[in-house]
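Predict the 3D structure for this chain.
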Amino acid sequence: MIAETPDAEPIPGTLNLALAASASAAAVGLLVFASRTPSWGWRIAAAVAFSYVNNTIFSLLHEAVHGHLHPNPRVNEMAGRLMAAFFPTGLGFQRICHLGHHRRNRTDAEVFDYILPGESRLLKTAQWYGILTGLYWLLPPIGCLLYLIWPGFFYLPERLKGTRYFRQTSTAAMLSGFEGAPQGTIRLEILFSFAFQAAICWLLKLTPAGWLTCYAAFGFNWSSLQYADHAFSERDVHEGAWNLRVSRPVQYLFLNYHHHKVHHRDPRIPWIHLPKHVDFAEPRPAFLGIWLRMWRGPRVWTEGREARGETPT
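Done. Predicted structure below.
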């Protein structure tokens, strides 16, 4: 069941703006440091730090997607667009994809940890290790670039979207969310994000080595979590997630993002209130444990297990 949430849970707007400003400054500073240092050791250290700071920014983008970054809608959208530029993605683009994820979670259209009947094992395995290695992070920027230069791709005929590979990769389900979307606004937001990235690279003289090292580390860190908080969980739209155990500093840096089951039960809850809705009597696997299990690869989903509603331990 979806948890009942009091409508009075306040959005920490001032705190969120302070976090957005400090995290943005830290991210830019780390990009500059990684570009200026002659030492690869220090460059890698800066990249690791950036991978966490930019996840704070992504968590704020996630709040903006749900309208929780600031109680003033205009401020929420403006701040959300800036947070999206650090990914880089577009706020509207991300909102369509993410809200679609809430509707599709753990359905056949969005289950990557199991090989379903009729699916390609090779494609499923490639998807799986693409998530684990950070290649998944490339998809939003590539998707945004495609939407910017060829939005017609997102309105392909149903006969193409209904093909086996479009269905298995969740592409068909994702594309359906763009029907009726404000195309002009989304493209302007994407253009802003790419212009922002180009501007900081040019004005701050960021080097390819510095930028790529930082974003490779962020992509790996971000992508690892995106399915660890769902992997091998119950196949239910609202219950199919985990409230993962992580260290307190990581929990704070990710703005309680690991309390993901609570979020899927009720997406209306702002990040700061998630911990008080966690049922600590429920199973709460460690992030590291789930992540290590994921490296064994996707598993075959049998009809018997599905009929019994079982999830492997």
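The chain has a mean pLDDT of 92.
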